[in-house]
Amino acid sequence: MQNQTEQLITRTIEENYMPYTMSVIVSRAIPEIDGFKPSHRKLLYTMYKMGLLTGSKTKSANIVGQTMRLNPHGDMAIYETMVRLTRGHDALILPLVDSKGNFGKHYSRDMAFAAPRYTEAKLDTVCSEIFADIDKDVVDFVDNYDGTMKEPTLLPTTFPNILVNPNQGIAVGMASTICSFNLNEICETTIELIKNEEHNIMLTLTAPDFTTGGYLIYNQAQLRKIYETGVGSFKVRAKYNFDKKANCLEITEIPFSTTVEAIIDKIVELVKGGKVKEISYVRDETDINGMKIAIDLKRGVDPDKLMQRLYKLTPLEDSFSANFNILIGGRPRTMGVKEILTEWIAFRTECIKRGLFYDIKKSKDRLHLLLGLQKILLDIDKAIKIVRETEEDSEVIPNLMIGFGIDEVQAEFVAEIKLRNLNREYILNKTAEIEKLQKSIEDMESTLNSAAKLRKVIISQLTAIMKKYGKPRRTALLYEDEIEEPEEEITEEDYPVTVFMTRDGYFKKITAQSLRMSGEQKLKEGDELKFTFEATNLSNLLIFTDKFQVYKARVCDFEDSKASVLGDFLPQKLGMDDGEAPIFITATTDYKGHILAFFENGKCAKIDMASYETKTNRKKLINAYSDLSPLVAMFAIREEQLFVLTASNGRCLIIDSGAISEKTTKNTAGVNVMTLKSKSILSDVVPYTDGMFEDPNRYRTKNIPAAGAFFKEGDEAPTQIKLI
Fold this sequence. Notes:
Strands 25, 26, 28, 31 and 32 form a five-stranded mixed beta sheet that branches. Strands 14-9-8-17 form a four-stranded mixed beta sheet. The two termini are about 65 Å apart. It folds into four domains: about 35-155, Alpha-Beta Complex (Topoisomerase II, domain 5); about 240-315, Gyrase A, domain 2, CATH 3.30.1360; about 345-470, Topoisomerase, domain 3, CATH 1.10.268; about 495-710, 6 Propeller (Neuraminidase). It contains 19 helices and 34 strands. By secondary structure, it is an alpha+beta fold.
């Protein structure tokens, strides 16, 4: 039996799994500041070295084979990388590979690309900006995987490609999803940031832009969060037009994050399931002219109302979740747009500096040679005589150095001049470069040592790129407040029900017949019934929570229940935030009446019920009531009525809700109704009922706010179930 060595799992993870994890993060899935993953960079650099920036197209199979010298992956993995970069695939705002043949389409799941032996490709013209001055040592180079050639660690892009073209990658324990932006807007924003570090990028960077077009639903708060943190989401919906003659909806642009097939599959599912009955046929009519989904409608169908429903039920409206996770100096960082552009400006500045260093060195080397040649001009005959009279070849250079006072490099340059060029005109023409070189070196050194001049170089390059490659936005903006969503069609039956909600947030609706046959209500251990009232199946529910929000639902959204079950758990059913709990519930059919909210500071907010009615059928409203003081009690009233208020110091006050002035905003702090003494608070509020007190007038007052009176002997303080 073979000996087995025990090894701690932590050690195995550290020695085996961690290197793999870091390799995936650093060398595969997360892009760097130039906007490329290693696979992109290796492919493009290979094409550059093949001369495909200026030459004619070559077979894709040839490109794939050459790329294997840098990228030790399978040929299909390399080819798929190239496919996504091509103009034909239509995934990039600024395509990097000019293609010929079938490369599939980003918006199609089933439209397969042709094999690499059938397609051809070369670098697109914009790659001249990607590889600008790469041969001038502007970026670092490292050995490839087998040490047979060098490859760049980054590409010296002259524009922020990281935000112009979309990028997505899944590593181990982290991911990156970068949406694309319009080239003009990114360049303009970068220019403004170079001029002013405090520039508000919301003014110049409108919103993300996609090759598939569509409408981006503009929410300024959501976009600001993405711009500032690099994390967030936004929605994009399809564009359509209605062919009245054919009674057909034509979808011509869809969200970037979905496909034609996914949309059609979902529509077919809805039609087969009977949830959408207005559609007779749906088909893919994508052709050489572009993408199109045709939806044939039945007679009398309102196309706009149907589309509003399809937006809700299908990927015709889809969310894009952004996560701007980028490698900076080999470390992943999640950054906002301004931080990314600041890093790119620093990277680009370093590239320009290195390019200037290279040019200055080359120019100085050339100047040094020409200064030596200039000395020959003093006596050409002497130079010829030295060469002619030198007996040994090895002594020519030393003799020229001694004869003209030049160094070895200069002497070597002079000695290599052809005999036919040893004339005064040739030497004068060459030495005429000296003044130009000196001026050029002076200008380059001035630029190198001036931050302002370096900024001007970047700005001029970005301006030129905007002029040459800039195009209008493809994705239009649709502001949230401009979206009119029609009321959902009522298909449910209406009938009386009794609604129950417990303190822990369990909800039940029970029909009258079932309630008559029911026994005791089943509750979770330690729970208790908090609200019970009659409603109808089509009533609207308003569920207020302890996080100052209100969730909206319809009674018919919940299944008919029985007393013997716990019911629906509202935080889960309504998708409440973590730790959020319902504290009050009411039902309405017409949003008439008022919500009364009483607070510990003695104030009451009287809010028109209509304030919670929305045209867009939103399911959650924030700032549903004031957060300035703890809530004591909440009531929904259709008519004015009396309430009994009790303070913690034992005082009692009876008020008429009609005396409380109505406020227009939901989260109003309210008006003072009970004057509180010393450190007392409003502790209880209950509706007044006849016979509650022997002498109710003792606790009434003509005007509010009032302090109320202490309880008379024999009267007891009424109590309520606590909201929180």
